[in-house]
Amino acid sequence: MNGPRLIIVDDSALMRQIIESVINSEYEVVASVADGETAVSAAAGLGPELVLLDISMPGVDGFEAARQIKRASPVTSIIFVSDHREKCYIEAGFSAGGSGYVVKSKMTSELLPAIQSVLAGKEYGRLTA
Questions:
Q1: Residues 29, 23: contact at Cβ < 8 Å?
Q2: How many other CB atoms sit within 10 Å of the CB of residue 13?
Q3: Which residues fall within 8 angstroms of residue 16, CB to CB, at 6 or more apart?
């Protein structure tokens, strides 16, 4: 596959499978990992264009993983895919280096448009006002 390369990060194996099923036909998943620490290592070693990142994980959470990924590879984009829909989480995601934010309950309708927007250099899911 020659499409953009992605890493999926979520502590739930089932959620990683669901995310992969939503995006698999259009994007190459180069790693699917369960925690932030492994995500940082995978991103450094594989150089993906995009990381789909959960927030609430044991050990290194998604916000800290995003900061570390962006320090190591500023060109790698990050979209948070989370159950958290509160404004404070969304703002924290963008502050940590995210370019997009998708709530898991809306993932099937919003994840592909979010990926397309972020890979085109735009933000997705930032609250305004």
A1: yes
A2: 10
A3: 8, 10, 32, 34
Output the six-digit token pair for 113.
């448009």
Tens-digit pLDDT profile for residues 15-29: 999 999 998 778 999
Per DSSP, the three-state class of 85 is: coil
Sign (positive/negative) of CA torsion 99, 52, 50, 122? Answer: negative
Task: Report the b/e string of 72-94 with b at 16+ CB within 10 A.
Answer: ebeebbbbbbbebeeeebbebbb
pTM of the model: 0.95
Give CA angle at 94 (126, 71), nearest 5°. Answer: 150
Written as six digits, the tokens of 86 are: 């509160």
Q: In the block, which residue shows the tokens 């620490």? A: 37
* Interval 56-115: pLDDT, tens: 998 999 999 999 999 999 999 999 999 999 999 999 999 999 999 999 999 999 999 999
